[in-house]
Amino acid sequence: MSGIHTTAHTNAPADYAAAASLPDQGGQWPDASWVTAIGGTALQQLTDEALAGNPDLQAAAARVGAARAMVEAAGAASKPQVGASFSTTRQRFTENSIYPPPFGGSYVTDNELALNFSYDLDFWDKHGAELRSALSQSKAAEAEHSASRLMLTTAVARAWIQLARQHAQLDLSDQQLALRDHLDQLTQQRVAAGLDTQSDNQQSRVQVANLRNERAQWNEAIALTRNQLAALLGQGPDRGLLIPKPMLPAEAVIALPDQLPMGLLGRRADIVAARWQVEAAQSDIKVAKTEFYPNVNLSAMVGLSSLGWTNFLSKGSLVNGIGPAIHLPIFEGGALRAQLKGRVALYDGAVATYNKALTDALHEVADQVQSLRAAEIEKNNQEAATLAAERGMKLAQQRQQVGTANMLQVVATQIAYLSQRKLELDTRARRADLRIGLIKSLGGGFDAGTEGLIPAANYSQDSTKSSSINTLSNRPTLANAAS
Fold this sequence. Notes:
Elements: H1 34-53, H2 55-76, E1 81-92, E2 107-121, H3 126-192, H4 198-232, H5 237-241, H6 260-267, H7 269-290, E3 295-307, E4 318-327, H8 335-401, H9 407-441
Antiparallel strand pairs: 1-2, 2-3, 3-4
């Protein structure tokens, strides 16, 4: 085993400089009620239906069940094994062997009934390591299932926000189209009166046609989003037609929780799953190392054996035995070293995956925070533009009332105001989507502690810096992951 070790180590949150990008703001971590906070009972009912009927989530749940079965199988290997066997064979014994007359040259029934015992004396804790590996794989599957739940929930919520935006935009387009139709009528009247030219009339009709195309595009987008939601629910497209028209959520104050990088260890299901995969890979290394040592199996049997049935149940037919079976690998052509190298390589890969999960998590949070900051600036600027358009519309209405402006100018300002409201609506929808994205990047309410996905043993982040798999123990855990 000499020369076979790893130099990989799991990164700690302290390895990442994030204080400037992700400052402490005294906010709370998301909890399970975030869906209701955004979309009320309507969105909560949709997400509940998706969690119950989505095939991808059902597949993830099946993987959890399979992993738990592997835990049971691994646990069984460390327990005594008991089995029973019975055989009866009708055969002719040769006259030229060890069987004397009357058996030699005759047909005789050979009967044997046995109760067999075996127990693997697991001196090197091979079965214990196999059990820990299976347990870690099971915990990883549970965490991956939680991550799948969050992905599905946020996908439903984001599609719901998109549907609300599309319906609201369609409503504004309908209002604009009505005003454009009115404006077209006014233009035709002015052309008939010689106040405008046919060019003005045709330009007005172009705007009407454009709005009708826009309305058709919004109807298409609404239909596609409803289809998307139906698929997320695991239902046919007709289910999407039954979803009530949603409304965009009210604005909310968003603040980051304190000690964000450290807190992500126990709040992100994907990070927890990757950490458990590291645990499993380290246990697999221990299993591979035990293959270099002697294996001792204790076997025993008791039963009955006889030729013919006459004396089968007599005391003289009793047979029994007990003894050890020892296997010691001496020369296996390097197969065991190759197996150990493979397990170490898998461990290195698991560590790299864990480190990437932590890096990606911080990246996702930072991206959402930066986008929310930009969206806040856009929101303020757009609100100012909408307010200016509204004031311009009211001024035009006042001028029309006193005869200094015509209805054509009033309708034009109304259309311009609705255009600004459309832009403002887009900024609101984007902020709502980014809010969901931030909730997702912060774990969406997942807590490894409450989910039972943190080992009881203590885990020191610093201890993994110089982790070398040269011994059969010293396995890091997730104990401080949620601190």
